[in-house]
Amino acid sequence: MRDPIPLDLARLRRSCSECALGFLCLPAGVDAEDMARLDAVVRKRRPLARGGTLYRPGDALRSLYVASEGSFKTVVVSAEGEEHVLGFHLPGELFGLDAVGSGQHRCQAIALTDALVCELPFARLTEIAADLPSLQQQLLRVIGQSADRDHDHVDVLTRRQAGERIALFLQGLRERLTRIGRHGDEFQLPMSRDEIARYLGLALETVSRGFSRLQDDGVIEVHGRRVRILDPEALRRAASGGDCQGSSATRACDRA
Amino acid sequence: MRDPIPLDLARLRRSCSECALGFLCLPAGVDAEDMARLDAVVRKRRPLARGGTLYRPGDALRSLYVASEGSFKTVVVSAEGEEHVLGFHLPGELFGLDAVGSGQHRCQAIALTDALVCELPFARLTEIAADLPSLQQQLLRVIGQSADRDHDHVDVLTRRQAGERIALFLQGLRERLTRIGRHGDEFQLPMSRDEIARYLGLALETVSRGFSRLQDDGVIEVHGRRVRILDPEALRRAASGGDCQGSSATRACDRA
DNA sequence: CGCTGCGTTGACTTTTGTCAAGATTGGTGG
DNA sequence: CCACCAATCTTGACAAAAGTCAACGCAGCG
After folding, report:
1. Does the structure show a pLDDT above 50 at A250?
2. Which residues contact B185 (CB under 8 A, 6 or more apart)?
3. Where do the domains of chain A lie?
4. Which UniProt keywords apply (chains A, B) (predicted)?
5. Rg (CA), chain B
6. Which of B84, B108, B154 to mutate to test binding with chain A, by most A CBs within 10 Å of its CB?
7. Element (DSSP H or E) covering residue B154
8. A153 torsion bin: left (phi>0), alpha (psi -120 to 50), beta (else)
9. 3-state SS string over A79-95?
10. DSSP conformation class of A60
């Protein structure tokens, strides 16, 4: 049985030129000439096998990265050897910014699946940005969006209920998948329960139970890494602590 | 009894021209002429009373900010009315970047103490950066450092032991205070236990108990918001899960 | 000098982590 | 094509940690 996700559309939208333009040049007008100039800079579609490392702590800032195919995680390993997941990076999302502050990478980027990565040499990028104001704007905006994702992550992590964190995680994934032109309501998780747990600051068993609970409540359907969101509204409620202990999916909180 | 922190040195380093230059122009060579140009752009030392709001969600991106005096917090209020603290911003640390991604602020910035804020109009900043490469570099670097702080925050939040989070919080504060030329080993917290709790994703009682525990263990000395770090090495150990249940400060983990 | 807001501490409850045992899944090689 | 293996996921029982509720202490302020 082969992967049944409808990839046709998504695959098209992720051709490299579409990708580079799609994320760096969205609203602003960058003409064809400029585009060509940018395209020339981008080192295209470097392949990386699942589990492969793109960069590690201490590596000098060389490039920023966008996967055109496949997803990544960025992790740090604490003194005690615990792995903390700082972020998941879906196709089309810029990452590698962790080296911009100090000139060196602070974490390790690992492919969650076989992947193709577009590499954007940082020096070239800033060089071009200097005499291409619209690109400078876009670069800043994209960096800002990356910071927004970090803030979302922090916001999730400050929730004290495991159920809320898990629901928010799924909801966030749904939004991001939709944004990159994929189905947000039915998808394959690129990461393991353990990785989700390390991203959410929970034990992996707690994540597993959380998924089961949402399934029992009729909010989602899970088979391993395959997830379908059945009731987005209920998911939203679960994410807002609207727990209510009940098993009925559609029942609103009795109080109120 | 008046505030006994030795502020002389720190106060000097935070004069506005020193501030603007100190953080935007650190290593790169920016000549006096360029400096003057920058200085002209920075709107200086706007005063804000404790509890005052600098911007709120939905506000258009106008400026980036640096406090020359006083500290800030950035918060989001969740659907249920819970306040989550996304960051604390010490004097000399750039904030306000949460609007760069979307053009609108996503959180609220509130003064923790009476404060003086330097305002850096964003449009002007990028304008100047476009024909001043060294400033562009610095701007990116400073933005990167801000992202680094967010990553540190995430890293703290993914720890599952409250004691570790609290120790890491104090250690991070120590480092940041030192970096801005203040005493890292004896300081006054600008925020309440409740705010620390909302930053760390804990109950305020847990934070209070964590402080008491560190004090009992001889690691720190606390009187309300006044903190003295007695044993940095023990603090580091506490931050790395080196808990050992014991009460003796210097005793290493018995195993090992 | 008594408020009032913050911080601390204790007793108890709830949630989550831990340990351990199965169940599934996916991949590999016979 | 099937069987087996390893990795991953799920579930249960129990222990530990953190949250909640509540009372008290303390300091700064009017």
Report:
1. no
2. B174, B228, B229, B232
3. 4-146, 159-254
4. Activator, Allosteric enzyme, c-di-GMP, DNA-binding, Repressor, Transcription, Transcription regulation, Virulence
5. 19
6. B154
7. helix B133-157
8. alpha
9. CCCCEEEEEEECCCCEE
10. B
Helices (H), chain A: 8-13, 16-24, 32-41, 122-130, 133-157, 162-179, 193-200, 204-216, 232-239
Q: Does A160 touch chain B (CB under 8 A)?
A: yes
How high is the pLDDT of residue B145?
92
Helices then strands, counting H and E runs in chain A, come out as: 9, 11
For residues A69 and A116, the answer to whether their CB atoms sit within 8 Å is yes
B42, HSE (Cβ side, Cα atoms, 13 Å): 23
Question: CA nearest B141 in A: which residue?
Answer: A101
Upper half-sphere CA count for residue A228 (Cβ side, 13 Å): 5
pTM listed for this prediction: 0.88
Convert the pLDDT of each residue in B182-238 to its tens digit.
899 999 999 999 999 999 999 999 999 999 999 999 999 999 999 999 999 999 999
Residues of chain B below pLDDT 70 = 1-36, 38, 242-256
Check: CATH 3.90.1150.10 for A4-146? no
Higher pLDDT, A99 or A40: A99
Q: CB-based contacts with strand D under 7 Å?
A: A 160, 189, 192-194, 204-205, 207-209, 211-212, 222, 224-225; B 1, 160-163, 201-203, 205-206, 224
DSSP label of B44: E
